[in-house]
Amino acid sequence: MKYCVLGAGLMGKAVAYDLLSHKDTELVLLADSNKDNLDTAKGFLNNKRLETKLFDAENKSQIEDLFTLVDAAVGAIHYKFNLSFTEAAIKMGTHFCDLGGNNDIVDAQLKFSSKAKEEKISIIPDCGLAPGLVAVLAKWGIEKFDWAHSVKIRVGGLPVNPKGVLKYERLFSVEGLINEYIEPVRVLRNSRIEAVEPLSEIEELSFPKPFEHMEAFTTSGGTSTLVKTYASRLKNLDYKTIRYPGHGKIMRALYELGFFHGEARKVVSKLFTENIPLCKEDVTLVKVVFEGNSKSHELIIVDYSTKTPPLTSMMRTTAFSAAIISWMQAHEKIKEKGVITQENCVPAELFIEELGKRNIIVQGIKSPMFS
Questions:
Q1: How far apart are CA 199 and CA 50, in angstroms?
Q2: pLDDT band at residue 365, thresholds of 50, 70 and 90?
Q3: Residue 18: CB partners within 8 Å, gap ≥ 6?
Q4: Does residue 156 carry a pLDDT above 60?
C-alpha cells in the first residue's frame, strides 16, 4: 500500500512512523512546505520506503499530483486546508482522512459526500484523539449498552511532572489550544443540541494513581458530529478537557477579561509560546462514561510517552489513531463510501484491537459482563 501524509510536524511524522510499521507498506510520501521539518522527520524515521517532498498546501495541482501516487492520504496540518484536500481526494479517487478540529470545516466537507461516494472512496474527518479516537469509543459503548442514555467524554494531555501555577506544558499548537478555550461548545442536553460556554462547568474527577485529583471543564471541538449523530438515541452527551486542579479558573479569568480575542490574543499566544515549555514526558487521560437506568460503565485510557521511539503520548494517541483509519481505508476495512464520520463507519472492535497492538490499552473493554 502507498500513503501520503500532508504535514511533517509532530503529528505528521508520527502518522508516517505508524504507517511504515506495516510490512505491506510500499511507500509513505511525506509532504510539507518546510524543508527543515522534512529533514527532521526523515532523520527520525530513517526508512527506505519514505519519500519526502516540498509542497504548497494552497496549490491544488500539487496536492492532486501527490494523491495520484497513493492509495490513501492523511491531512496532518492546519484544518483550514482540509476542505481543499477533500476536493482533491475526490478528483483523484484517493481515500482521505484528517486530524480535523473545526466543526464548520467538517460540516462543509460532509456536503461532498455524494461526490465521494460516486468515486467509491471514503473521506473521514476528525480522526485524531478528540475529536477522533473518543468517537469510536463512544460508538462502541452506545452499540453495546442499549440502556445507556447519557455519555460523558473526558480527555486531557498533560505533563507527567507538572510545574508552575498552570501545571501545563504544550503538546500541540498554541493557536489550536486557544481555539478550544474560546469557541462555543456543542452538547446534547435532554435530547436537544445546545451550545454552552467554554471553560465552564468545572468538575472534579479521578483516575488511578497518581492522577486521583483532576478537574475537567467544557472546551470546543471534542464532540464534533457526535451530538448530531446520536441526538435521537441519547438524552445527554458532552465533552470536557482534563487538567490539573486550578488550571480552569485561571483560563476562565483570561477568557472573561478578553485576553483570548483581538490584539490581546496575539500577545497571549506569543507569551504562551515563549513561557509554556514543550512537553516531552506526557500522559493522556481518557474517560468515557456510559450511564442509564441506574447503570454505568467506564472506558479508561492512561497512556504515557515513550523513549523508544521518542514519541509523546499526544502523538501516539492522536497520530496513531489517524494512521489506523488510513490503514483501514487503504485495506477496505471501512466499507462505507462518501464523506462519513467515524461513528458511522469505523469498525469499533477492530479499531480498539489496533490500538492495543500499539500498547494503547482501553480499560473496560474486556470484562466478564461482556463474555
A1: 41
A2: very high
A3: 319, 320, 323, 324, 358
A4: yes
CATH code of the domain made up of 133-310+353-370 = 3.30.360.10
CA distances from 182 to 131, 199, 203 (A): 17, 8, 18
Q: Is 208 buried (19+), middle (13-18) or exposed (0-12) by CB count in 10 A?
A: exposed
Residue 24 C-alpha cell reads as 505491506
CA distances from 135 to 141, 170, 242 (A): 10, 24, 17
* Residue 185 identity: V
Which of 308, 318, 321 shows the shortest CA–CA distance to 356?
321
User: Does the pTM exceed 0.90?
Assistant: yes
CATH fold of the domain at 2-128+318-347: Rossmann fold (3.40.50)
Residue 95, phi-psi category: left (phi > 0), alpha (psi -120 to 50), beta (remainder): beta
- Dihedral through CA 280, CA 102, CA 326, CA 350, nearest 10? 90
- Residue extents of the structural domains in the chain: 2-128+318-347, 133-310+353-370
319 sits in which H/E element? helix 313-330
* Strand partners of residue 195: 186
- Same fold across 2-128+318-347 and 133-310+353-370: no
